Amino acid sequence: MIALMNPRDFGLRASLIGSVLALTSCVYRLPVVTPPSQGLVRIVANAPEHYVVRVNTERVREYEVPHDGRIRVGIPAYQPSCGVYLFNVIKVGGYSDPVKTWTASISRNGSTVLNLSIRDMLRGPMDEAGYHLLKLAD
């Protein structure tokens, strides 16, 4: 036989659950600072030395591409924004990634050939030395 819950117990349990949910409704998580690093990139083209890579992070830097096409792109330290979680479980916002918004443009003879984010530039396939390959059509 199923016993019905006492209305007094129900009210106590409902208020306890409501209090717990109210106290733990939203949580902000702050990720750790990512230290400065270098991204290894190799421009694969017939004449890679004709290209220039311009990286726009917190400041703009240009990298002349040598004959072998290999460059080291400086990535400054950064801290992603806070993540917002409902009940400390369900992600509802936050965590912008600066590396996705920082850009790199590759140009040849003053004309831009390719624009992409730093994150996309460092996602490509790698060679045996650990350089991310960017294949460009001449």
Radius of gyration over all CA atoms, rounded: 25 Å
Q: How are the strands of the largest sheet arranged?
A: 4-3-8-9
Residue stretches low in confidence (pLDDT < 50, at least 5 long) are none
Instruction: Give the tally of β-strands.
Output: 10
Tally of individual helices: 3
In percent terms, what proportion of residues is strand? Answer: 35-45%
Tell me, rounded to a whole number, the average pLDDT: 85
Any overview of this molecule?
With 138 residues, this protein is of the alpha+beta class. The protein has one domain (7-135). The chain has three helices and ten strands. The strands form three sheets. It has a four-stranded antiparallel sheet with strand order 4-3-8-9. Strands 1-6-7 form a three-stranded antiparallel sheet, with no helix packed on it. A three-stranded mixed sheet has the order 5-2-10, with no helix packed on it. A hairpin with a 2-residue loop joins strand 8 (103-108) and strand 9 (111-117). The longest helix is centred in the first third of the chain and has 17 residues, at 7-23. The protein is rod-shaped, with a radius of gyration of 25 Å.
Question: How would you sum up this structure in a few lines?
Answer:
The protein has 138 residues and is an alpha+beta fold.
Give the SSE layout.
Elements: H1 7-23, E1 26-29, E2 37-44, E3 51-56, E4 60-64, E5 70-75, E6 83-86, E7 90-94, H2 98-101, E8 103-108, E9 111-117, H3 118-121, E10 132-135
Parallel strand pairs: 2-10
Antiparallel strand pairs: 1-6, 2-5, 3-4, 3-8, 6-7, 8-9
